[in-house]
Amino acid sequence: MRIGEVARTLETQTATIRYYEQAGVVAAPARRPSGYRDYDEADVARIAAVLALRRLDVPLNEIRELAGTCFDHRCATNTARLLALVERRSVKVHRRIDELHSLADQLA
To answer: Is the pLDDT of residue 59 over 90?
Structure first.
C-alpha cells in the first residue's frame, strides 16, 4: 500500500507518517522498484497504534520507547519494561483527569 492510501485509511496526512518515520517512531517501509514506500498490514497497524497513542497525548519519546519494547513482537520478553511504561502513562492520565475536573469546577 502506498503512503497516500495509508493516510486515507488512517485519516491522517502523509506528512504525519513521514514525520513518524523520521522521528524513529515507526520503521521506514520497504520500497517499490519505483522508489515509492510500500506499506504492509503490519506497518499500517504500527502507524495506527502510534496515531492512537498521540491522540492520548503520549509524547513521542514514550511512543519510541514503547515501539522498541513492543511493536516488533517483543512484548513478552520486555514485560516489566512495558508495564512500567504503561503505569507511568496511567499516573499521568489520571493526574490530567483530576486537573480537568478541577478546571471544570472552576468554570462552573
So the answer is: no
